[in-house]
């Protein structure tokens, strides 16, 4: 996919929407942090009560990703980076790029 925005253009819009969503996640004791954006993929880290929660996948897919798709672009994808791997999100992003280029 050739995404129509640069990572630099996309990041502020993503940050704004995540800040809008954060209070809803916090109601259940969770948190979300934007780690970065690369080629239409948004890398976040869920925290607080979201860690280990069975509903966290739904929170990402039907909460965060859905809002980003509606408000920014329908091809955006959100990927959760587990605790302890936040410093490696760029390496993980490169793995996703490699999978898409095969």
Full CATH superfamily name: Fe-S cluster assembly (FSCA)
Portion in beta strands: 15-25%
- Counted up, domains total 1
The whole-angstrom Rg is 13 Å
Low-confidence stretches: none
Number of helices: 3
Biggest sheet strand order reads: 1-2-3
CATH architecture: 2-Layer Sandwich
CATH-assigned fold name = GMP Synthetase, Chain A, domain 3
Helix content: 40-55%
Total beta strands: 3
What string gives the helices and strands in order? Answer: HEEHEH
Q: At the first level of CATH, what is the class? A: Alpha Beta
Specify the overall morphology.
globular
Our measurement of the CA-to-CA distance between the termini, rounded to an integer number of angstroms, reads 12 Å
Question: In words, what does this structure look like?
Answer:
- There is one protein chain.
- With 102 residues, this protein is of the alpha+beta class.
- The protein has a single domain, classed as 2-Layer Sandwich (GMP Synthetase, Chain A, domain 3).
- Helix content is 47%, strand content 21%.
- The protein has helices at 7-26, 56-71, 89-100, and strands at 30-38, 41-48, 77-80.
- A three-stranded mixed β-sheet has the order 1-2-3, with helices on both faces.
- Helix 2 (56-71) links the parallel strand 2 and strand 3 (77-80).
- Helix 1 packs across helix 2.
- The model has no long low-confidence stretch (mean pLDDT 91).
């Amino acid at each position: 996919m050739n995404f129509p925005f640069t990572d630099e253009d996309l990041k502020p819009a993503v940050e704004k929407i995540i800040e809008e969503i954060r209070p809803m996640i916090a109601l259940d004791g969770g948190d979300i942090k934007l780690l970065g954006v690369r080629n239409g993929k948004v890398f976040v880290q869920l925290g607080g009560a979201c860690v280990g929660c069975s509903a966290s996948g739904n929170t990402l897919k039907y909460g965060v990703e859905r809002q980003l798709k509606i408000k920014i672009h329908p091809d955006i994808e959100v990927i959760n980076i587990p605790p302890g791997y936040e410093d490696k999100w760029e390496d993980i992003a490169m793995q996703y790029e490699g999978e898409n280029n095969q």
